[in-house]
Design goal:
The protein is mostly helical. Helices cover 80% and strands 0% of the residues. It folds into two domains: 33 residues, no CATH class; 65 residues, no CATH class. It is built from five helices and no strands. Helix 3 packs antiparallel against helix 4. The longest helix is centred in the middle third of the chain and has 32 residues. The radius of gyration is 21 Å and the shape is elongated.
């Protein structure tokens, strides 16, 4: 009975804006108000680096396509920069996985 009440209380917060306030309070308690701008800056830099790596990987892939060949080492480097596991994939599967990841991050 207590579990049902707690479950109902939690479900009320899931759909509303209140959960944002709760998460914000938890972040302030754990990190402190002075650390939050630093954490946001770090997150922004990491996001920018990821986006730069994605753009660079796409550019390299386009260059290799225009040359007509792509070496396995280059494919692995691109896959690694995108966070794709390439250990059990052949070249065609790896190319397809890279294309999927590039298209997914566009959206």
């Amino acid at each position: 009975m207590v579990a049902e009440g707690l479950s109902g209380l939690i479900m009320q917060f899931v759909g509303g804006w209140e959960w944002i306030i709760i998460i914000g309070l938890i972040v302030v308690v754990f990190f402190g108000a002075k650390k939050i701008p630093e954490l946001a800056r770090s997150f922004g830099k990491a996001t920018a680096e990821f986006e730069k790596a994605r753009i660079e990987a796409k550019r390299e892939l386009q260059e290799m396509k225009s040359e007509g060949r792509v070496g396995r080492e280059k494919l692995e480097a691109i896959a690694d920069s995108l966070g794709i596991d390439y250990t059990n994939k052949n070249d065609e599967e790896l190319r397809a996985a890279i294309e999927v990841e590039l298209n997914k991050s566009k959206q």
